[in-house]
Amino acid sequence: MNSENKIVTRFAPSPTGFLHIGGARSALFNYFFTKQKGGKIILRIEDTDAERNKDEYTQAIIDGFDWLGLKFDDTKKQSDNFPTHKKYLEKLITDGHAYVSKEEVKEEGQRAEVIRFKNPNKKITFTDMIRGEVSVDTTDLGDFVIAKSFEEPIFHLSNVIDDITMGVTHVIRGEEHLANTPRQILIWEAIGERERPIYAHIPLILSTEREKLSKRKHGELVSVAYYQNNGYLKEAFINFLAFLGWNPGGEEEIYSLEDLINKFDITKVQKGGAVFNVDKLNWFNKEYIKKQTEKEQLEYIKKYLPNIEKYNDQLLEKLRPVLIERINFYGELKKMQEDGDLDCYTHAPVFDNKNEEASIEKIIWKKSNKENTLENLKEIKIILSLNKDISFEEIWDKIYKLAEEKGKGDILWPLRYSLSGKEKSPDPKTLLYILGVKESEERIETALKELSK
Residue 112: how many CB atoms within 10 A of its CB? Predict the structure, then answer.
């Protein structure tokens, strides 16, 4: 522990790709643990791989955390610490813990020598906060490489030196780093400046087929940016990620960030892999959408609904509950638009008997006929035209009473089809409410004219 007895953690991503959901969860668990203990958390960009690092990836990592609302106490770049890495590297050689190896075969693009750590071939034992006691015989690791040159330390060395110089007390990271820990403990002990940190290795996130989630196989689904760009709510995403491999117990599943910080217990994180179930994420997101105010819902609809210029504010306000009921995340509005599910609200139907989908013949209820349909539509139109000064609910009560008298199919089916021009559409009450009496009258009149031909 550091001299002030204060917990210090770090999340240390490499800017060689966009922020992975596994990385985001590791950052969250670090964040929960640190904030609960009143400690300090550092975002450390490990940019030592010059050939693969890209500024756009660094920015994507920062943007991802900005979206999630995670505030780090400090942000560092590992490359800024290169002079310190070199100093420690030289000290390890001077103290006999490392040496320059000239045994490498020089080929095109390959260096003639590297710097290796002199392995003491000992058994390493450490207590993992999640996995308990872990013991590893380091003999099989051999004398492993810690730098390509004095100017190019690699991951194992630079990672340890940064943890030492930044006062890191707890290393909470993914299970894939478990194999690195024995090497890093050896380096830490060789430097010997202070006691090594406490480790916790979080289980992998798996696909529903129980495979490790990877960009190569699962594409953009592993990227935090995918969920941000598709209109998921950050609160839902955090809540979902927190429950991948851990939960506070009990039946409750909806927790704010503050609740999660208060209840988090790293010793209760499971050892086995956690399955990333998109259906569960969608459930969480739907619950958080329902918690939004109507104003917040409208703001998100305006942001994610394509061709928003087609919709005036009055129409959007009426559409809001219909859209909210049908989506799990706001990005689904795009597909609704592309599939034509919203056309009936912005365009009056065009009936064309040459077009099977919009044939006026479909306006006739299966148990009715053309004459009855014409008569029924005229009665509906009369109700609309004579009752403009009463409330919508009163108008609907009159239409529904007519449906009860003449048969619901005979009245409600032609009304719905004349308003939407589709066999599958929202119910006629919803259509009538959203379109309004005037527009509905005009559409019914168009249907009457087409049916009368």
Answer: 11
Residue 105 falls inside a structural domain:
no
* pLDDT more than 90, % of the chain: 81
Looking at the structure, tell me whether residues 281 and 217 fall in a common domain.
yes
Half-sphere exposure of 97 (CA within 13 A, CB side): 16
350-372 pLDDT tens trace: 887 665 566 888 899 988 999 99
Measured at the alpha carbon of residue 210, what is the angle toward residues 207 and 215, in degrees to the nearest 5?
40
Within the chain, what is the greatest distance between any pair of CA atoms? 102
Query: Counting every residue, how long is the chain?
Result: 453
Tell me: do 285 and 298 sit in the same domain. Answer: no
Any domain includes 144:
no
Alpha-carbon gap, residue 150 to 128, rounded angstroms:
32
Is it the case that residue 184 has pLDDT exceeding 90?
A: yes
Residue 234 lies in a domain: yes
Question: Same domain for 178 and 68?
Answer: yes
In this prediction the pTM is 0.90
160 pLDDT above the threshold of 50: yes
Give how many domains the chain has, as a whole number. Answer: 3
DSSP string across 95-133: TTSEEEE--PPP-TT--S-EEEE-----EEEEEETTTEE
Q: Which residue has the tokens 């014409």?
A: 374
Instruction: Clarify whether residues 183 and 205 are in a common domain.
Output: yes
Considering the chain, what is the average pLDDT of its residues? 92
The token pair at 278 is: 């998109």
Expressed as residue numbers, the domain containing 214 is 1-77+154-291
Instruction: Tell me: do 37 and 73 sit in the same domain.
Output: yes
**Distance, CA of 348 to CA of 21 (rounded, Å):** 44
The span from the CA of 27 to the CA of 59, in Å, is 16
Residues 38 and 185 in one domain: yes
Q: Looking at the structure, do residues 354 and 442 belong to the same domain, yes or no? A: yes
Q: Does pLDDT of 439 surpass 90? A: yes
Phi, psi at residue 206, to the nearest 5°? Answer: -115, 155
What span, in angstroms and rounded, lies between the C-alpha atoms of 161 and 193?
10
Q: Tell whether 438 and 338 lie within a shared domain.
A: no
How much of the chain is helix, strand and coil, in % rounded to 5? 55, 15, 35
